[in-house]
Amino acid sequence: MASTLQSFIAGRWIGSEAAAPLHSALTNAVIYHTHADKIDFDEAVTYARKTGVPALMQLNFQQRAARLKALALYLLERKEELYAISHQTGATRADSWVDIEGGTGTLFAYASMGSRELPSSNVLHEGPAMALSKNGGFAGTHILVPRGGLAVHINAFNFPIWGLLEKFAPSFLAAMPCIGKPASATSYLTEALVRMMHESGLLPHGALQLVIGSTGDLLDRLNGADVVTFTGSADTAAKLRVNRNLIANSVPFTAEADSLNCAILAPDVTPDDVEFDLFVKEVAREMTGKAGQKCTAIRRIIVPEQMVDAVGTRLRERLAKISVGDPSVEGVRMGALASRDQQRDVAERVELLARGNEVLFSARDGFKPVGEGVAEGAFFAPTLLLCRDGHRNDAVHDVEAFGPVSTIISYNGIDEALALAARGKGSLVSTLVTKEPAIAAYAVPMAAASHGRVLVLDREASVESTGHGSPLPQLKHGGPGRAGGGEELGGIRAVRHFLQRAAVQGSPTMLAAVTGEYVRGAAVQEHDVHPFRKYFEDLATGDSLLTHRRTVSEADIVNFGGVSGDYFYMHFDEVAAKDTQFGQRIAHGYFVLSAAAGLFVSPAPGPVLANYGLDNLRFVAPVAIGDTIRARLTCKRKVDRNRTDDKGVGQGVVAWDVQVTNQRDELVASYDILTLVMKRA
C-alpha cells in the first residue's frame, strides 16, 4: 500500500490523511500520496523566526560551515538509501549521482569555502574601510549581517535533492532558517532527504522545515527580512513574483526559470576535427542525461549551414545507440520522464516544434523501452529536429520541451550564430566549440550578454571539463531574461545574497569594534609580550608591535640582488636610474618586504606555526640607499578554524596588518600576512 508523505513543520512531522497520488515514473504505479492535513503556515513562519533564527545565531559562520561538512558526511554514508528511492523517479544511476552526490558535494564545497573565507563571528566585513575625512578620524565601510528572517525555497521536480541542498547550503551559512517546498511529483525523494537531515541531529531546531503539497498562504506571511527563491517554469515564476505581499514588503525574490540553452559549433571546426566529435558528444549527453529534464540542457544546436547534414548524421547515430527503459536493466542509459503529466507536456511541445521543421530522429526510429512493467511508464524517445531558417521560425526560440528534445538550427557566419543564440531571450548556459582563441575572444562577450554561463570547449578543456550542463558551486548559476534574472551559487557570493549589507560610519576605533577587524587609524594595544609569542586565544584584534629601525645600505641591495638573481637596472645602474621618476637607485620591493619580516619576526619556537599567505601587497613609495625603515605589525583578524592538527593541537588563522614606513613616517609598503597560530588548549 502506498504510504503518505509528511511535512516537517515546527519540529514535528505532519500528515496522516492521503491526498494526491504520486506515481512511479517507470511503471505509473501509485507509490506515495501527498497528505491532506492542512499546514498552519503561521506556525511554520513563527517557528522559523522565534526558534530557527536564535538557534542559528548561537553559531558563527565557521561553526555553521563545520555543521555543513558533518552533514555532508552523514548523508554520503547513507546515499544508497537515496539511490534506491531515486530509481522511482526514472533516473539512471548516473542521473541520480548528479542529484544525490552533486547535492552532498555542494554541501562540502560550501563548508570548505565557509571555513576559508568567512570569519568566526556573524559580521562579515566588506572592506577595506575608507577615510571620510582629511585627518582620518572619520571613516566608513560596509558590513554584511544575518537578515533575521527566513528563506522559502521552492524547487522543481527534476533535482529533488540537489535542488534543495544547493539553496540550503548558502542560506544555512547565512543563518537563515529554511522552508523547502519541492515539486510534488518527486517530493518523496526530498522527504527522505529531510528525514535524514533531521535524524542527523546536526541541524539547530528550526533550521529546516519541509512543505509537501501547496504553499497555501505562506508567501502572504513573509516580510522584508525574508527571501524567496524559485526554480521552475517562467509562467509560475511570473505569478509568484507579483504576489502583493512580496511586492508590498520588498521581499527579495530570485527565480531560475525556463531556459532555451544553446550550443554553437564555430565555423572553424570541420568533421575531421576532434572538436566536432566533442560537440556531437556534448549535445547527445545533454539531450539524454536525466532524460533531458535539466534546466541547463541544450535545446538549440546552432550549426554552420554546411555542417548541418554532418551534425545530423552523427547525432542520429549516437541517439540510435541509446537504450531507454528501466535503469535497473543492464545497458539502459536513459530513464523515464518524472511523470505521465510531464510525458504529455513534452509531446505537446514537440508537436509545436515540429511545425515547419524536419524531424530527424524520434519514436518512429525503433523506440521501445526495456524492462518489466514499463509499458505505462513515462518514457519519451530522444527527439532531434532540424530548423533550416531560425529567423522565421519563432517556436525554436520560444518553446521548451522539457525532455530529450533538441533542434538543429543552421547559420551563416558567427554573427548570425550569436544573433540566433540571443533569440532565446536569456538562458542559463551556452557552449561554444571552437579551435580558435580569436573566435572565442570575439564571441564570448556577446554571448555573455544573454547567458549566465559560457563554456568554451576545445580538445584541451575537454580532458577535465565538467560539461555544459553541470552548475558548479564555485560559479554563478542563473541567467538573464526568460531564465529568471536570478543568481545562485557562485561561491561565497551566494552566501552574501542571503545577508543584509549596511554601510557603517564612525571613527576607525569604532569601526574596528563593529567589524571585528583592525581598521587602520584605530587604537592599538602594545604589550611587553611580542604578538608572535601569544597563543591564538590570547591574541586580541589590535594587538600591535612597532619595531626597531633599520637603515638600508648599498650592500643590502647588492646582497639581495645576488641572492635573488634580480639585477634590474633600477637597483644597480646609477646612470640609468637618474633618468627615471625616482632620480636615483632604489631598493628591491621584495627586499623591503624581507627586511620588514626581519624586523617583526620573533625567531624562537612558539605558537606561530607557519606563514602561509600574503594579501593586498602594495609598494607605495620607493626606498633609497640611506633610508631608514621600520614596521608596525598589528593583529587584524582572527578566524577559529575549529580544527586540530595530527597531534590534536588546535589551530586558528591570524591575519596581520603590516605597514612599513621610512624616516619621515611615510608609508612605503603595505600588506597583510596570514599565519597559522597554535591554540593553548
Automatic annotation (TrEMBL):
It holds the Pfam family MaoC_dehydratas. Keywords: Oxidoreductase. It comes from the Bacteria. Residues 464-486 are annotated as: Disordered. SUPFAM superfamilies: ALDH-like (SSF53720), Thioesterase/thiol ester dehydrase-isomerase (SSF54637). Residues 24-446 form the Aldehyde dehydrogenase domain. Gene3D superfamilies: Aldehyde Dehydrogenase, Chain A, domain 1, Aldehyde Dehydrogenase, Chain A, domain 2, Hotdog Thioesterase. This is Phenylacetic acid degradation bifunctional protein PaaZ.
